[in-house]
Amino acid sequence: MSKGKVDALLGIVFGDEGKGKVVDVFTPKYDIVARFAGGPNAGHTIIFEGKKFVLRSIPSGIFAEDKINIIGNGCVVAPDLFMAEAKELEDAGYELRSRLHISKRAHLILPTHRVLDRAYEAAKGKNKVGTTGKGIGPTYSEKASRTGLRIGDILENFDAKYAALKTRHEEILRNLNYTDYDITEEERLWMEGVEYLRTFPLTDTEIEINRALREGKSVLAEGAQGTMLDIDHGTYPFVSSSNTVSGGVCTGLGVAPNKIGEVFGIFKAYSTRVGSGPFPVELFDETGDKIRQIGNEYGAVTGRNRRCGWVDLVALRYAITINGVTQLIMMKSDVLDTFKTIKVCVAYEKDGVKTTDMPFDTEGWQAVYKELPGWQTDLTEMTSEAQFPQAFKDYIAYLERALEVPITILSVGPDRAQTIIR
Ligand code: IMP
Question: Measuring CA to CA, which of 23, 82, 97, 398 is 20 to 30 A from 202?
Answer without folding.
Answer: 23
